Amino acid sequence: MKRAIGILGGTFDPIHLGHLQPALEAMQTLQLASLRLMPNHIPPHRPQPVATGSQRLAMTLLAAAELPDVTVDDRELRRLTPSYTIDTLIELRQELPDTPLCFLMGMDSLLGLPNWHRWQELTEYAHLVVAIRPGWQPELSCELAEFVATHQVDDPLAVHQQLAGHLIWLQNQPLALSATELRTRLAQGNSLDGLVPQKVADYIRQQGIYRPAVL
Ligand code: ATP
Fold this sequence. Notes:
By secondary structure, the chain is of the alpha/beta class. The protein has helices at residues 17-29, 53-65, 75-78, 85-95, 107-112, 122-125, 142-151, 179-187, 198-207, and strands at 5-10, 35-39, 70-72, 101-106, 127-131, 167-170. It has a six-stranded parallel β-sheet with strand order 3-2-1-4-5-6, with helices on both faces. Helix 2 packs antiparallel against helix 9. The N and C termini lie far apart (47 Å). Adenosine-5'-triphosphate binds next to helix 1, strand 4, helix 5 and helix 8. Residues 10-13, 18-19, 22, 105-106, 108-109, 131, 133, 175, 177-180 line the site of adenosine-5'-triphosphate.
């Protein structure tokens, strides 16, 4: 079996250190071979991101370029229709039959998991790695608590021993950052320096994304 890899999906509108820092901590703690950042395709009936798909991809590529073993997987953005995470994981499993997959998410995403399509099958294709996120407590509904109890393991390196099926609680440094807050900061004329990679901050400035007129 190969070494496990990580996958972090997100809207990345924009990508920020609240995404990258826990993901890098996961890479280190779980000794992941690599990490794929995967920008989402947003369904037309949902609130649309402020940045276009190509801008979100460009920002994600700029962030990844500075980080060793971090790449961007744009498969969901390239599709004309949104993909469910389960479908993406099934596709990745077919492409990487010997590689354990670790799907990373923040606590807010875990709490929303029961709304995801075929959510209980996610662990058939990947391990789940849940990062602490300020403002979100692990207050789980009954069905989620049962799911977590079935899958959680203490040893983060257990992800290398089987292809999928574990849930790991990442003991990351909590970072109180959200893309919503960053868009608000920009709309109010504040800078993002230190909150997103510098090249991402420069790109946002050059492209004029998130200016008040655009919001
Ligand atoms: P928005 O504010 O626009 O909803 P967001 O900052 O929550 O965006 P997303 O792109 O929706 O960012 O998040 C992608 C993934 O990253 C999700 O699993 C989310 O839980 C996780 N994540 C985002 N910010 C943090 C953070 N500060 N700490 C831990 N996980 C985070």
